[in-house]
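Obj: model holo form, ligand = tetrahydrodeoxyuridine.
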Amino acid sequence: MTDLELMTAAEKARECAYSPYSDFKVGAALLTKRGKVYVGCNIENASFTPTVCAERVAFFEAVKNGERDFAAIAIVGGKSGDNPTFCAPCGVCRQVMAEFCQKDFRILLGTKDDFKVYSFGDVFPLAFSP
Ligand code: THU
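Output (holo structure tokens):
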């Protein structure tokens, strides 16, 4: 799985986003160390607080399937109808990453045509972790 393929998987996952309240659609593609990909999209709710981000949907789907070891996540987000723009993971999703990921876990942000790669250690220094 190349970085470009992972970004493309995130863009495809974004098509399933359910976001009638923010009109902001996010897709995530999470790569395990053994090469399997789990995807997620944001799912909003009329009561607002039950809303979950694309990243957490991908992580929980993976963990639910017995996965514990992760290599990378691609995240694409943006207003509905627009091409995705730069979308950084929220603090809650970073905390979920801290439960399962090491500092060298890779985070790909942008679009499939133009993305930057960060490490988890870069985006969440001093994380509270297990
Ligand atoms: N959202 C994500 O899915 N991931 C992020 O990293 C940031 C925000 C979602 C939550 C909500 O449905 C919408 O984007 C606007 O905040």
